[in-house]
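Q:
Just now I want nothing more than another pair of eyes on a protein record. Here is the record:
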Amino acid sequence: MPGLLRGVARTAVVAGTATAVSNRVSRRQAGRWAQQDMAAAEQYAPPPPPPQAAPPAPADDMSSKIDQLKELGQLKEQGVLTEEEFAVQKSRILGS
């Protein structure tokens, strides 16, 4: 009987060691695959958006509005715009 117990104990130790080694190898391999996936994802990631331009200065914004209103006035004088269309566009320009 002591020989049988010794054999069973040895088998248990070997099986436990094999399981531990197998688990460690699996975790290490999974980590390597995760790193490869991250590298591939970074490689194919879209480029970052370009930086946004600063908003126009208030003086530039006002001169732009004045120019737009002048153009609207000319279109109205030429008969391209009706009075209602002119009023809508004027309020859009001044409201923005």
